Amino acid sequence: MNALALHYHPLSSYCQKVLIALDELGIDVDRRMLNLGDAAERSAFLALWPTGKMPLLIDGARAVPETTIIIEHLQRHHAAAGRALIPSDLDQALDVRLWDRLFDQYVMTPMQAFTADLLRAEPDRDPLIVAKARKDLVAAYAWLDKRLDGRTWVAGDAFTMADCAAAPALFYAVTYVPFANEHRHLAAYFARLMDRPSVARAIDHAKPWFKFFPNRQALDRRFYDPAT
Ligand SMILES: N[C@@H](CCC(=O)N[C@@H](CS)C(=O)NCC(=O)O)C(=O)O
User: Fold this and answer.
1) Å from CA of 87 to ligand 1 middle
2) Nearest-angstrom CA–CA distance, 170 and 26
3) Is 54's C-beta closer than 6 angstroms to any atom of ligand 1?
4) Separation of CA 67 and ligand 1 centre (Å)
């Protein structure tokens, strides 16, 4: 049995962030599919990690939560030779951590607010929360587009942890707020992300589950065919 296990769900954007990182770092884990909708599974998971947020990495006796910490841990202890998502140069590493944080806080968070709203019963939906999430995404797209002018990846020359965060965040975000025509650099970056084999594999792995994504009708037909 592999000492490394990941509690996760293929549809979850934060879980995809770690799946992409595992693939990039050349690391195998036992994948333990988690159904938080099941009361028994939820309470067993809460006993492992009390925030109840996935993914959670188990490394021997150690539980490692929070995607950014998981990726740092994986790189430090388990990465295949020559693979890295956080550069050894300290200033470059700070830049990667900054852009990882920015994607989590300002793209993942509003994107999740849209999804959470759709998952609520109709009378409990809140147009103010959705309007704020839309405003935050529109603002983020504008500064991301500037940042990506002349860049292949968001932090440095190589694909990094920040790009692992970016791919699933943008994948779902564009279903709620598509890029404006002027966001050429961001749109080109998004296309590069979707072509990256590790990202394509994480999305492929999620495909059987997209029918449960509440905004599935807005997914690109490349990824989801409503007839299936
Ligand atoms: N800051 C956390 C966020 C993780 C997170 O929001 N996970 C979502 C799935 S994408 C989750 O577990 N949602 C279940 C819930 O809130 O009950 C991280 O980086 O790991």
Assistant:
1) 26
2) 24
3) yes
4) 9
Report pTM.
0.97
Q: Whose CA is nearest to atom 5 of ligand 1?
A: 53
Going residue by residue through the chain (228 aa), what tens digit of pLDDT does each one get? 568 999 999 999 999 999 999 999 999 999 999 999 999 999 999 999 999 999 999 999 999 999 999 999 999 999 999 999 999 999 999 999 999 999 999 999 999 999 999 999 999 999 999 999 999 999 999 999 999 999 999 998 999 999 999 999 999 999 999 999 999 999 999 999 999 999 999 999 999 999 999 999 999 999 998 877
Give 13 Cα–ligand 1 centroid separation in angstroms.
Answer: 8
User: Which residue is closest in CA terms to ligand 1's atom 18?
Assistant: 66
What are the distances in angstroms from CA 92 to CA 149, 155, 156?
18, 8, 7
- How close is the Cα of 49 to the center of ligand 1, in Å? 11
Phi and psi (nearest 5°) for 50?
Answer: -70, -15
**Residue of 53, 70, 111 to test ligand 1 pocket, by largest number of atoms within 8 Å of CB:** 53
- Set out the domains of the chain in order of their start, with CATH numbers: 90-197 (1.20.1050.10)
Taking CA atoms, 126 is separated from 54, 117, 169, in Å, by 25, 7, 22
